[in-house]
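Reply to dn_fold:

You asked what the input looked like. This is it:
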Amino acid sequence: MYSGATGDTHLLDALPVEVLRFVIDSAPCSVLEIAALIADVVDEPADAWVVQVSEVLQRLRALQLVEHVPH
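and this is what came back:
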């Protein structure tokens, strides 16, 4: 993934790629909404994904690949 903000290119694992896909397709969306979308894909409860999605979003924000948009 290329960051236009920093000029850096990042190699991402599967979960960050899926989170980014949902952010792009459903923006703006909350951590809970993204967790629910991922849970639907893997057929698990959404609450099992909230912490992981939150951590992924924090890392993506640190890399300047996404930004927090209050809604």
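The mean pLDDT is 89.
Hope that clears it up.
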